[in-house]
């Protein structure tokens, strides 16, 4: 007669691994964008001709931007979702609105990096700068829509997610505040004064705040990581 040993709940419990995965992923995306914004060869407010000329002059930096953008696209959405997992119990509505803004915004980043890919590819292929500029100006309108989704989504969504962290006290107040102010600083640095070191600082604050959330997740017992 064969005796079957019942499977315990702990044998199938993967929450410990998922907590570690979340903690490791959380700061990667914001940190990647922080470095991306620092090494970006052009300014966000540049016109197409200026952007093209700067990319042609620095293809190596643009290649690094594309790699960092690829890393960000892979990690920002799971990072936002992981933060939402620890704030939704005490701030469900605020978390929901934040994620409804953040996730489409982050997903739109992939569409925006396509334009940078095109600029780098044109420069790498030795195309005439004027031809690259004309093609850049003829980008599909969906790129502009993606830009709106990204700007509104990641700026407003990050602010709301930081407020959710503040209200729920998942992390220390300084970490929640770092997340709240990170994207307004980025917006100022990218759109108003075109300051790449300040942009690095803004996104870096989000990376630090998300790292603090990751540390808080590691300290959670499995039954609190639902």
Automatic annotation (TrEMBL):
Keywords from the named record: Membrane, Transmembrane, Transmembrane helix
Signal peptide: none
Highest taxon listed in the record's lineage: Bacteria
Membrane spanning residue stretches: 20-40, 60-82, 94-114, 143-167, 174-194, 200-218
Protein name per UniProt: DUF4386 family protein
Organism expressing this protein natively: Kribbella qitaiheensis
């Amino acid at each position: 007669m064969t005796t079957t040993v019942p499977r315990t709940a702990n044998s199938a419990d993967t929450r410990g691994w998922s907590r570690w995965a979340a903690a490791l992923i959380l700061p990667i995306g914001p940190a990647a964008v922080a470095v991306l914004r620092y090494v970006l060869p052009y300014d966000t407010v540049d016109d197409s001709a200026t952007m093209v000329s700067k990319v042609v002059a620095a293809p190596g930096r643009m290649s690094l931007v594309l790699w960092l953008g690829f890393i960000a696209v892979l990690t920002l959405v799971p990072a936002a979702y992981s933060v939402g997992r620890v704030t939704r119990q005490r701030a469900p509505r605020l978390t929901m609105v934040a994620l409804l803004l953040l996730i489409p915004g982050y997903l739109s980043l992939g569409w925006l990096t396509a334009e940078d890919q095109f600029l780098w590819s044109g420069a790498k292929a030795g195309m005439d700068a004027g031809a690259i500029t004309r093609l850049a100006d003829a980008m599909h309108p969906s790129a502009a829509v993606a830009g709106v989704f990204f700007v509104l989504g990641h700026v407003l969504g990050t602010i709301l997610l930081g407020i959710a962290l503040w209200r729920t006290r998942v992390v220390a107040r300084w970490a929640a505040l770092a997340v709240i102010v990170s994207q307004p600083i980025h917006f100022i640095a990218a759109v108003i004064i075109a300051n790449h070191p300040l942009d690095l600082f803004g996104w870096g604050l989000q990376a630090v705040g998300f790292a603090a959330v990751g540390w808080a997740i590691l300290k959670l017992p499995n039954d609190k990581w639902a």
